[in-house]
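From the methods appendix. Each design record in this collection lists the tokenized structure first, followed by the designed amino acid sequence. Records were kept in a plain field format so they could be parsed without special tools. The example shown here is representative of the layout used throughout.

RECORD:
FOLD TOKENS (455 positions):
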């Protein structure tokens, strides 16, 4: 039985992400005949002699008209060895929020660069976001290698520059792979290219099929955000009261002692229901309904957690945020914090530092955070909330910052996550600069999606 790999693409606009995804879908025969016919007709209308494979991904009319991707497009495909869920994210800097969405559940990210341009500002920004989100593996696809004459020296220079940057952000050498590709011509995407005899590594698909996938740790502390309270009140189920949701981490068994948070009420698990019947236990990634032994007050947004290893319940915490709004963040801002299914009022009391993803340095007391900037903040909530550090749980250590006035998303936040800054690099005051001098690891660290509910 094949396993599942969740991956995301990232990179600057016009680097060929949609074409690369289209090539993967086309060459793995994952495209329905009527879809391919529609793409072929659209390509012919544009005066093209061959199908424009990017149209397999760019489904929105505005994307097709502009030739860019402006939304996260989820695609599914499979080979005999593995199944894939792929999030194709936008390249424009103003859509970095969508990159955060697509990458928040990814186990691997494909970061594209144009071989003619090399590593640019947006490449470094995306690499920093991927490091912050704890995406464990990176593939640098040096695309459009055909447009530089399949030059080995160009590939080697770009690969070395990016690898140095990725290692500085905390990736290990064996977690970063660079591959020369031409999404348009198909070089080294699915089939090995004879036009790059100097490259002896895997094709992109070979690597995606072989890369190790880290499963959800079933021995982690049990966490179960309640999504829905089920009370049928029918003659068949007169007293049924169940709590439905997705097991975010760990394992729960019938008879286990649990806490309901933030109230702190203690009870035991009496039954675990699914659409296919009862289970003796449930593990991370399963959607189940829990029935509890005692008649305790449990609401949507509460967290059922291990009584032996509970999360901390706090009304103030440190976090790293990626600011996703046009209006800047300043200390004292009144916002809403949404974690799981619960939303509480909050204040951003401090803005401690801003991360400069280009210089890999930290700016203390920056005064504000602007669109796409990453910063370290202190948040105080109006009521206690149960939280895990993001480094120990990507699902229960993530939250959203929401505008209380209009409900728009302002930021994606990670509880306790350190800024991905080089060890030994001193902070600098606003406007200063610091050159990187060394490396340090970022803590290795799937909420179903950090920003929006993707597949």
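DESIGN:
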């Amino acid at each position: 039985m094949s396993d599942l790999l969740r991956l995301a693409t990232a990179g600057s606009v016009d680097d060929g992400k949609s074409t690369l995804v289209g090539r993967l879908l086309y060459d793995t025969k994952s495209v329905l005949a009527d879809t391919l016919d529609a793409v072929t007709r659209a390509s012919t209308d544009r005066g093209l002699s061959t199908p424009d494979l990017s149209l397999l991904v760019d489904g929105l009319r505005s994307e097709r008209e502009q030739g860019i991707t402006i939304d996260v497009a989820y695609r599914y495909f499979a080979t005999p060895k593995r199944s894939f869920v792929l999030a194709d994210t936008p390249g424009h800097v103003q859509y970095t929020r969508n990159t955060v969405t697509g990458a928040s559940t990814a186990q691997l990210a494909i970061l594209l660069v144009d071989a003619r341009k090399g590593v640019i500002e947006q490449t470094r920004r995306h690499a920093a976001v991927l490091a912050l989100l704890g995406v464990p593996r990176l593939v640098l696809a040096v695309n459009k290698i055909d447009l530089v004459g399949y030059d080995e020296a160009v590939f080697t220079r770009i690969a070395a520059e990016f690898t140095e940057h990725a290692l500085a952000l905390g990736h290990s050498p064996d977690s970063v792979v660079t591959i020369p590709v031409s999404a348009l011509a198909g070089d080294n995407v699915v089939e090995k290219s004879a036009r790059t005899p100097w490259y002896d590594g895997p094709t992109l698909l070979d690597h995606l099929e072989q890369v190790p996938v880290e499963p959800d740790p079933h021995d982690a502390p049990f966490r179960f955000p309640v999504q829905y309270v089920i009370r049928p009140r029918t003659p068949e189920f007169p007293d049924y009261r169940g709590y439905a949701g997705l097991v975010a981490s760990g394992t729960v068994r019938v008879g286990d002692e649990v806490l309901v948070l933030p109230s702190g009420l203690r009870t035991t698990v009496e039954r675990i229901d699914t659409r296919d019947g009862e289970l003796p236990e449930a593990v991370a990634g399963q959607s189940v309904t829990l029935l509890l032994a005692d008649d305790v007050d449990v609401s949507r947004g509460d967290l059922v957690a291990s009584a032996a290893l509970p999360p901390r319940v706090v009304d103030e915490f440190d976090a790293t945020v990626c600011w996703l709004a046009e209006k800047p963040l300043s200390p004292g801002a009144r916002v809403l914090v949404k974690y799981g299914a619960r939303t509480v009022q909050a204040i951003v009391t401090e803005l401690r530092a801003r991360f400069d993803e280009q210089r890999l340095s930290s700016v203390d007391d920056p005064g504000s955070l602007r669109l796409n900037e990453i910063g370290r903040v202190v948040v105080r909530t109006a009521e206690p909330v149960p939280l895990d550090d993001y480094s120990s749980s990507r699902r229960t250590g993530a939250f959203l910052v929401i505008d209380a006035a209009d409900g728009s998303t302002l930021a994606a936040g990670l509880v306790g996550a350190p800024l991905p800054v080089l060890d030994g690099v001193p902070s600098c005051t606003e406007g200063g600069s610091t050159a990187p001098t060394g490396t340090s690891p970022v803590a290795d660290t799937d909420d179903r999606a950090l920003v929006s509910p993707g597949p």
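APPENDIX NOTE: The longest strand covers residues 342-356.
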